[in-house]
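B., you asked whether I could sanity-check this one before it goes into the benchmark set. Here's the sequence:
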Amino acid sequence: MKKLSLFALIVLSLLSLSACAPDAIKPSIVMRDDDFVGGNLSFQFDKTANIIYFGGEGEVVQYYQKDILKGWDEAGNRIGIKFIAPSEIKNFEEAKVSINGDELIVKNNFKIINGEKVAELTIYPVVNEEHRDFVINLAWQEKNDSENFRVIVKEGTIFMSEE
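And here's what the prediction gave me:
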């Protein structure tokens, strides 16, 4: 009987501790960028696996010239991905993004939606035959867990050449 009571006490203690634990931060919202950089490509976000799919058989990824004003330091085929921060994130200045471990210099874009400041972060990675499957790591705040998103440009997608 003492063993059962001790076990019940331990279980109740663990349950009460977990009830006091802070809530986990919700995941980011992921979507195409507002300008549909890359062209008229199919887009799918698998929330359960955190995989972002672009393109498909016969679809074409557009080619873009280097554009310093947009922060594009090289020409190439680009896709646009927009991330919206969870509402719990209040300090947007700490956001860090990397692609396959290489940190990007990002500028946070803010919008006022329903009277609240919301962080939207849009990136435009260069993609090609050799760079069509990669991982984006996003941390909105240094003290929070980061999110990993795998990006896949589907087989059969065509990469437009420079004209």
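One thing to flag: Residues 2-20 form the longest helix (19 residues). Otherwise nothing jumped out at me.
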